[in-house]
Amino acid sequence: MAPVPCALDAPSLPRGERGAWRDGARGPGGGAVSRAGEGLAAGFVLAAALCLAQPADAQGQGDAPKDALKRVEQQMQTGKDRQQQLEHQSQALQAELDDLRGRLIGLADQARDQEQALGGLEESLTALEAEERERSASLDAERRQIAALLAALQRLARIPPEAALARPESPVDTLRSALLLRDAVPALRARSDALAKALEALADTRGKLVDRRAKALAAQVALAEKQGEMNRLIARREELSRQTEEERVQVARRMADLSGQAADLRQLMERIEAERRAAAEAAARKEAERREAERREAERRLAEQREAERRLAARKEAERKDAERKLAELRAAEQKAAEEKAMAERQAKEEAERERKLAARAPSRDTGNASQADGMLLPVAGKLTTRYGETDRYGVASRGVTLQARAGATVVAPRGGTIVFAGPFKGYGLILIVEHGNGYHSLIAGLGRIETAVGRKVAGGEPLAVMPADGEPDLYFELRRNGHPINPQRGFGAPEGKGQG
Q: Where does the record place the region Disordered (predicted)?
């Protein structure tokens, strides 16, 4: 990497520029630094900061140690030259600061004298104002007295001699008045002259008062100007001191950095080379670790993929066996259902045939009342309208019998047993289920009111419910054994077998 150029690598400032900087720093009468000098100083400070920001290895990296050492030494020489320049500038600034201090002391003395003079003027103004008020008051009193005397003299002067002889006073009083008037006129004239002089003195006092006020105002303005100049000089002094001190600190810091770099440049280059080797070794180590991690990750993913495939195969095999088992169960269930259906159809046909033969032997049962069925008591007395296995009103084979009873007829238990259900059920209305033992159950539906409860034991023929109270209600009676409906007309002693269901 090529070295980054630094402003400190340039040669020392030309003598003309140094002189211009010093002249601008001092300035006529201690004024502000010239713009050329300020720009030069600011540029140098910025360049020094940029040089400080460059790392040591960036300046020397890629060059021969000899060239790097030479460049650092040149930079150190440039810094030393700049330190000497700053020392000269510091001396010049110190002289200017001493001059500024002297001027500040003189200005402070002048300001103090002006403040004292201003205080005297203010005191004299106060005395003159008091004197003006006293003279004005005395003149006003004298003016009023003279005005009264003049008014009296004017009145006497307006009286003619003839009128004076004709006045009622005696001649002696008139003569006395004339003598008094003759003596009063010179006194009035003297008092008038004194009054005129007093007026002139009052005018002179007022003039002095105006002059003193003008002088006091001018003294105040001059004092304010002196104070402003003192403030400007103080600010100028602080600014020069701050700029010089900041630049000296920056150059000193840069020199310290350069000294530290040049202390042992060979060790620095060795350290850089060691750092490079360490970085290369660390990079190689990281690359090897990365490759090893990738290899391990690939092995882990391959193992996970193989395990997933094994699990998938095992799951598919289990699903296949389960499907075969379910298929076998389904086929067995279908075969069993087909057998049961065939048996049910065969039994239904046999039952229908027996019913047909029974109907042929006893034709009067189709229209007569029924309360007993081959030795079994029917739940209600009434007309048998639908037999077991016949098509009911819904078009399906009936699993029980239907009896048309009278309104409000009593419903009894067909045989002794236990009530296992009593109440409404879906669309069947009120129903009763009686458990008789040996797998027999009676289901009675179409009731109007139930007069028993679940869990109660009943005897054969015991009243259980009442039919609806209006019309010609139908009662449905179904007899089941082991869950399968059988013909109720055959009674409880019929051979065990499955009916239509």
A: 1-32, 331-375
Residue 294: pLDDT band by 50, 70, 90 thresholds? very high
* Sign of the four-CA dihedral 71, 75, 76, 81: positive
Radius of gyration for the alpha carbons in the chain, expressed in angstroms and rounded? 72
- Half-sphere exposure for 331 (CA within 13 Å, toward CB): 5
3-class secondary-structure state, position 491: coil
CA distances from 355 to 363, 393, 479 (A): 11, 19, 16
**d(C-alpha 239, C-alpha 249), whole Å:** 15
Closest CA relative to residue 372, chosen from 461, 486, 259: 461
* Rounded CA separation 379/368 (Å): 16
Q: What CA–CA distance (Å, rounded) separates 453 from 379?
A: 17
pLDDT class for 247, splitting at 50, 70, 90?
Answer: confident
Look-up of token digits 């002693």: 493
Cα angle: 438, vertex 443, 445; to 5 degrees: 170
For the record, the structure tokens of 342 come out as: 């065939």
CATH class for domain 369-490?
mainly beta
Going by pLDDT thresholds of 50, 70 and 90, the confidence category of residue 61 is: low
Domain residue ranges in the chain: 1-263, 369-490
Q: What is the DSSP letter of 32?
A: P
Which residue in this structure is represented by tokens 């193989």? 306
- 319, burial (CB in 10 Å: exposed 0-12, middle 13-18, buried 19+): exposed
Q: Residue 471 is encoded by which pair of tokens?
A: 């019309």
Per the CB < 8 A criterion, the answer to whether 387 and 401 are in contact is yes
Query: Rounded distance, CA 157 to CA 184, Å?
Result: 13
Span 231-250, average pLDDT: 80
Q: How many Å separate Cα 2 from the centre of its chain?
A: 50
- The mean pLDDT value for 408-428 works out to 92
The strand ranges marked E within 347-389 are: 369-373, 376-386
Looking from the CA of 222 toward its CB, the CA atoms found within 13 Å total: 16
Q: What are the Cα distances from residue 66, in Å, to 55, 60, 276, 474?
A: 18, 10, 20, 128
Q: How many CA atoms lie within 13 A of 495 on its CB side?
A: 3
**Three-state SS annotation for 156-186:** HHCCCHHHHHCCCCCHHHHHHHHHHHHHHHH
Res. 345: pLDDT tops 90: no
For residue 499, with 0-12 CB atoms within 10 Å meaning exposed, 13-18 middle and 19 or more buried, which class applies? Answer: buried
Structure token pair of residue 441: 């159950």
Which three-class secondary structure state does DSSP give residue 424? strand
Residue 192 burial class via C-beta count within 10 angstroms: exposed 0-12, middle 13-18, buried 19 and up: middle
Which residue type is seen at 125?
A: L
Structure tokens at 444: 């009675």
- CATH architecture label of 1-263: Orthogonal Bundle (1.10)
User: β-pairing, 474-481 with 440-447?
Assistant: antiparallel
